[in-house]
Amino acid sequence: MPSDIEIAQKAKMRKIADVARERLGIHEDDLENYGRYKAKVSFSYLNKLKNDKDGKLILVTAISPTPAGEGKTTTTVGLGDALNCIGKKTMICLREPSLGPVFGIKGGAAGGGLAQIVPMEDINLHFTGDFAAIAAAHNLLAAVLDNHIYHGNELGIDIKTIQWKRTVDMNDRALRKITLGINEKKEGFPHEGGFEIVAASEIMAIFCLSTSIEDLKKRIGQIVVAYNKKKQPILAKDLKVVGAMTALLKDALAPNLVQTLENNPAFVHGGPFANIAHGCNSVISTKAALKIADYVVTEAGFGADLGAEKFIDIKCRKSNLQPSATVLVATIRAIKYHGGAELSNLTKEDVVAVDKGLVNLERHVENMTKVFNLPCVVAINKFTSDTPAEIQLIFDRMKKLNVKTVLASHWSDGGKGAVDLAKIVVELCENSNQKMQYVYEDKDTLIEKINKIAKKIYRASEVTMDDKVKEQIQNLQNAGYGHMPICIAKTQSSFSTDPKLRGAPSNHSIAVREIRFSAGAEFIVIICGNIMTMPGLSKKPSAENIDYVGGKIVGL
């Protein structure tokens, strides 16, 4: 089979204006075109939809990620195509890829095989410039903050308390911790700072959780950038830069419309990581899609312990969304990896490794059905190396949990390869009357919220933190922020904070290393273990394979 980029470059794309008009009823006047195949949908059009009935929301999540890959985005696209195949008016809602993983170890994030969104190269690279706008707004605030201090520090900012870092959309470990201002004149102020990747920026979180330009503006104004010597917070609005930041973001906030290989519509908008941020596409695009289509398929980043938990406890809580069905994606190769098999042996039949590794899938199923109380179907993303014995074992174990399992071949067959999955999802949606449950309540203290996620979702026995972190949490609680959700940043590779612990570890310890207050996003980030908000490149990054040859991008 050709590579993903070869398939994408041979796609018979339709003009996005035609897709919008014929599939969604959106007139070209309501689009801002970015070439022939990309467009933003205007807010004037979205505002007309406010009183329309919502469609059904379907959340695609996955088992704990492995180096073998699971195909969550591929399944999201394949399921969206399949629902359209069976006559259901369906939209897909995805996150925008970050250049960090594209040039790092993960590669692009536009699906794969015959289940992709296109134009694939544009989506994975600069797209419509949203990430650049977010980075510019973020760095403008950093520049104005330092400039304010340089010109007299009227607000009395304590330099040692500066919270606001810079941002860049690239994996660059050398920027994690830097010294700023060392080349300034004598009256300058050298101080410590650092960078985080755009996907971890609070501006990205605000962008994805805002419901309007007005809401975006309000949230930006709430950002805490530092504290004064009386330990009072200094906000972005105190620096009088909210208007300028909004001006940089105004166009980016409109949802991006593209298409699948089968010319079905998809919103691709916003891109926070789920291991260090909240991992969901924008509220604006999800809510718009629900007004436009009868079924909306969206995904949450990484495994269900991270992405799905944050989708529910942050995004759904803040925007009154509830999935009518959930799809838990797994591959037999990934299950074998969680059962102890090595990467080099994953294509060989190993029923023993499947048997051991199924604990990871079972844990995620239990969380979705029992903790969150949501209907769930397991989708096995099929590979040619899968054997009947391995497949049957998964079906038997899932049957014991009263969860349906389906083999899906959308990677090789496109939408028609996920029709069985689509039919089960429709059945779940139409028969769904369950009330979704959160892991914790708003009224719980911040410590209680952390413990509930650690114990209910990760099955940890304890949460540990030093006295400084405890004091930070208590100060936030005392300052009236205890009602906010929390966003745990930890490794995506395990239920624990140790990426080497495969399967479904229990009775482990969750070590909280640091607290970051995202007042504009209205959640509190709990950084655990060795997770970094600025990733690094691998020894052999994907960038080495990417080139521009004969008028085409190759190796992406």
The CATH architecture designation of the largest domain is: 3-Layer(aba) Sandwich
| Percent in helix | 25-40%
Q: Which oligomerization state do the chains in this entry correspond to?
A: single chain
What is the number of helices?
19
Q: Kindly state the number of beta strands.
A: 24
Quickly count the domains.
Answer: 3
Topology summary:
Elements: H1 4-9, H2 16-24, E1 31-33, E2 39-41, H3 43-47, E3 56-62, H4 72-85, E4 90-94, H5 99-103, E5 111-112, E6 115-118, H6 120-124, H7 130-150, E7 166-168, E8 178-180, E9 191-193, E10 195-197, H8 202-209, H9 213-222, E11 224-227, E12 233-235, H10 242-249, E13 256-260, E14 265-268, H11 283-292, E15 295-299, H12 304-319, E16 325-330, H13 332-338, H14 351-371, E17 376-381, H15 388-400, E18 404-408, H16 410-413, H17 419-431, H18 446-457, E19 462-465, H19 467-481, E20 486-489, E21 509-518, E22 523-528, E23 547-549, E24 552-554
Parallel strand pairs: 3-15, 3-16, 4-14, 4-15, 7-10, 16-17, 17-18, 19-21, 20-22
Antiparallel strand pairs: 1-2, 2-13, 5-6, 6-13, 8-9, 11-12, 13-14, 21-22, 23-24
Keywords, separated by commas or semicolons:
Domain 2, N(10)-formyltetrahydrofolate synthetase; twelve-stranded mixed β-sheet; Formyltetrahydrofolate synthetase, domain 3; 3 domains; Rossmann fold; 556 residues; alpha/beta; four-stranded mixed β-sheet
How does this model look, in words?
This protein has three domains: 4-128 and 252-431, P-loop containing nucleotide triphosphate hydrolases (Rossmann fold, 3-Layer(aba) Sandwich), CATH 3.40.50.300; 130-249, Domain 2, N(10)-formyltetrahydrofolate synthetase, CATH 3.30.1510; 446-528, Roll (Formyltetrahydrofolate synthetase, domain 3), CATH 3.10.410.10. Strands 1, 2, 3, 4, 5, 6, 13, 14, 15, 16, 17 and 18 form a twelve-stranded mixed beta sheet that branches. Strands 19-21-22-20 form a four-stranded mixed beta sheet. Strands 7-10 form a two-stranded parallel ribbon. Helix 4 packs across helix 17 (419-431), helix 13 (332-338) packs across helix 14 and helix 14 (351-371) runs parallel beside helix 15. It is built from 19 helices and 24 strands. The chain is an alpha/beta fold and 556 residues long. The radius of gyration is 23 Å and the shape is globular.
